[in-house]
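chain below, 70 aa
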Amino acid sequence: EIEQLRQVPLVDLLTRLGFAPAYWKGQDVWYRSPLREERTASFKVNTDRNVWFDFDAPNRLHNKYLYGKR
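prediction:
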């Protein structure tokens, strides 16, 4: 089950949920955080690894805490 979830492209999921990218930089797609209101994009999705990182979250929350390092 978890392996199936890991196969879902995060950019596609965020698009389906109504979140639009602020900008693309190489394989990184930057968003205003879907977890809080902000004016500057601090939420990054790496499309090569299909992982996300929230640079403005307390303790720099990212998905390795949700399902392990990749």
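Residues 65-70 have pLDDT under 50 and may be disordered. The chain is about 25% helix and 20% strand.
thats it, cya
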